[in-house]
């Protein structure tokens, strides 16, 4: 019965610990989402910067495996080189040691006070309305639950009989390679090196696991954590598989080097740790830190050689590049880290808009010149755009179910409408190409006057396209009024061109057949301008409604003017509800530009 109680206490402790880690990680991610997006937006070939990015992101999301999986996603999308990925993976291994240090704090008498933070966090979540305080409550609550879980784990080894039995069992399997295998297997099964490391730290502190044996299990956990990356690389590109291989090579090489040193010198290593650090739990944590710091220091100068070895182990696929439609920036691997997923889906939508614009340009040139040589290119890109539209829509649905900040929720909601508008623009481009082909087959031509009018209206629409993309990418609310005027100008141009077309028909200046094509094209250009207006105004209205967006802007301006008028130099204090709404709107207004900086 005592053994059963201890086992249940251990299982319960691990469960609470992992839940606390997830809770704290979610809070940190939501709070540091902007910072993470900026970090990944500034990735360079500087290997030291890469190590720093990897360490910082891992501290935030509390999982080196999650960071590595995310990096595999970047490499798979072609957004990161193997060299850059290798440096970030090295940093991720350093960042994961931060959690081990937190776990080791449970040995101090102040650990019970950390546990009380779970109660404080729960109160903040229950009683505060503002999202930022709820996030802080989640971080504190998760941090407190970590120590509650560690306390439960410690209770599993509190019974002297159970403690002695566990120590005896580990002495019987004291062969170093077997201990490394134990660490590998348990980490692979639990998909969390931190959970296994926390158990090892707790057992060492209670005396159930000698320090000399614990060190080898810790080495095994570093290899076991590579399983998540290996699984994530299945079905990915060749370079993504190489990234997973680099993660494995890094930890295997480090483990081999440390085993070669520790095995014959284990007594001296234990004495050294005892001399430097008094507490057994802190000794294990610091060994984990030393392992990753030393391995990174040794292998960092050899990143190029490491990538070449991975390239040799994972060979290139035979055959050329697959021309089938694909997603360029989004990957399900990013869903583990919602702030990064939001940034990537924005990139995908930006790329989709660029493809639609290029197709519109090719198709309109075909209309004006009757040169339809690009019709296959237009058709293929139309298929790609349709594929991306469906893929982004499915991805947005998945992303909506993740833990998002209020501003990101608004942004994701608006993208549903934006991708639809872009897809409609691409459809019009395809129709233009079909019209150009039909006109050429039927030897139907526009008059020079009609061509000049079409080109003029097309230029105005393309100027709107550039402006809409700029407003969307940079959240340029101040340019919406001017954009609205552009849209009205296109509407007037369409009416004017329609009247001119009727006049030419009455005067016999053009055929009825060519006039039909003419009116169809100017009507489509006007509808394209409407879709572009929806895209531009989506930054203020999720549905892209121009009226709704302008009403919001007007209301904000009136509110600010009223506050300045009645409060002099200082604004009146906001209520909690007003503060929350204003903060969310402000975040929503900057989410476009904060992701990867201002557009050109």
Primary descriptors:
0% strand, 600 residues, 24 helices
Tell me what you see in this structure.
This protein has 24 helices and no strands. The protein is mostly helical. The C terminus is likely disordered. Helix 1 packs antiparallel against helix 8, helix 6 packs parallel to helix 11 and helix 7 runs antiparallel to helix 8.
Task: Summarize the SSE layout with pairings.
Elements: H1 2-31, H2 33-41, H3 47-61, H4 64-76, H5 82-95, H6 97-104, H7 111-127, H8 131-156, H9 160-172, H10 176-190, H11 193-206, H12 211-224, H13 226-232, H14 238-276, H15 280-299, H16 303-313, H17 338-369, H18 375-400, H19 406-441, H20 448-474, H21 480-507, H22 512-537, H23 546-567, H24 576-596
Give the overall shape, derived from the CA principal axes. elongated
Q: Percent helix among the residues?
A: over 70%
The helix/strand order is HHHHHHHHHHHHHHHHHHHHHHHH
**From the helix content, strand content and strand pairing, which structural class follows?**
mainly alpha
Question: How large is the share of residues in beta strands?
Answer: under 5%
State mean pLDDT (0 to 100 scale).
Answer: 82
Low-confidence stretches: 568-600
In short:
The chain is mostly helical and 600 residues long.
């Amino acid at each position: 019965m005592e053994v059963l109680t201890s086992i249940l206490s251990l299982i319960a402790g691990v469960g609470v610990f992992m839940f606390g880690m997830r809770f704290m990680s979610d809070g940190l991610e939501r709070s540091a989402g902007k910072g993470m997006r900026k970090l990944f937006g500034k990735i360079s070939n500087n290997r030291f910067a890469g190590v720093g990015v990897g360490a910082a992101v891992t501290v935030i999301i509390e999982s080196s495996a999650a960071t590595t999986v995310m990096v595999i996603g970047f490499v798979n999308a072609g957004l990161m080189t193997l060299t850059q990925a290798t440096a970030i993976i090295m940093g991720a291994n350093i960042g994961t040691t931060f959690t081990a240090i937190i776990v080791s704090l449970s040995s101090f008498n102040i650990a019970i006070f950390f546990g009380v933070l779970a109660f404080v966090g729960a109160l903040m979540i229950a009683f505060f309305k503002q999202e930022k305080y709820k996030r802080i409550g989640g971080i504190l609550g998760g941090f407190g639950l970590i120590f509650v879980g560690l306390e439960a784990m410690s209770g599993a080894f509190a019974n002297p009989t159970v403690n002695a039995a566990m120590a005896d069992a580990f002495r019987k399997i004291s062969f170093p390679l077997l201990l490394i295998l134990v660490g590998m297997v348990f980490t692979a099964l639990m998909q969390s090196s931190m959970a296994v490391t926390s158990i090892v730290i707790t057992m060492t502190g209670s005396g159930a696991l000698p320090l000399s044996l614990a060190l080898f299990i810790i080495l095994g956990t570093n290899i076991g954590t590579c399983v998540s990356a290996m699984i994530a690389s299945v079905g990915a590109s060749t370079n993504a598989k190489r990234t997973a291989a680099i993660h494995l090579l890094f930890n295997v090489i480090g483990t081999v080097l440390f085993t070669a040193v520790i095995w014959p010198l284990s007594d001296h290593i234990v004495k050294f740790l005892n001399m430097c650090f008094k507490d057994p739990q802190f000794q294990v944590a610091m060994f984990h830190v030393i392992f990753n710091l030393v391995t990174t220091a040794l292998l960092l100068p050899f990143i190029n050689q490491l990538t070449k070895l991975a390239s040799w182990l994972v060979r290139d696929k035979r055959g050329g590049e697959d021309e089938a439609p694909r997603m360029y920036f989004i990957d399900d691997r990013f869903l583990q880290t919602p702030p990064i997923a939001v940034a990537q889906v924005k990139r995908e939508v930006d790329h989709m808009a660029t493809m639609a614009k290029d197709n519109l340009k090719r198709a309109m040139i075909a209309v004006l010149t009757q040169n339809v040589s690009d019709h296959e290119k237009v058709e293929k890109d139309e298929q790609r755009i349709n594929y991306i539209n469906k893929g982004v829509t499915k991805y947005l649905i998945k992303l909506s179910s993740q833990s998002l900040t209020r501003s990101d929720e608004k942004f994701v909601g608006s993208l549903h409408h934006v991708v639809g508008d872009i897809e409609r623009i691409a459809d019009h481009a395809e129709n233009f190409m079909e019209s150009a082909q039909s006109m050429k087959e039927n030897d139907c031509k526009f008059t020079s006057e009609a061509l000049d009018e079409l080109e003029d209206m097309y230029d105005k629409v393309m100027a709107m396209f550039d402006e809409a993309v700029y407003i969307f990418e940079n959240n340029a609310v101040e340019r919406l009024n001017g954009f609205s005027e552009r849209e009205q100008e296109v509407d007037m141009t369409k009416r004017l061109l329609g009247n001119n077309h009727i006049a030419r028909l009455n005067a016999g200046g053009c055929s009825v057949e060519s006039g039909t094509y003419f009116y169809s094209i100017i009507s489509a250009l006007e509808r394209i301008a409407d879709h572009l207006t929806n895209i531009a105004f989506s930054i203020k209205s999720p549905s892209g409604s121009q009226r709704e967006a302008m009403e919001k802007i007007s209301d904000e301006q009136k509110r600010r003017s009223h506050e300045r008028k009645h409060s002099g130099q200082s604004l009146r204090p906001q209520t909690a509800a007003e503060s929350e709404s204003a903060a969310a709107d402000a975040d929503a207004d900057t989410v476009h530009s904060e992701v990867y900086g201002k557009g050109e």
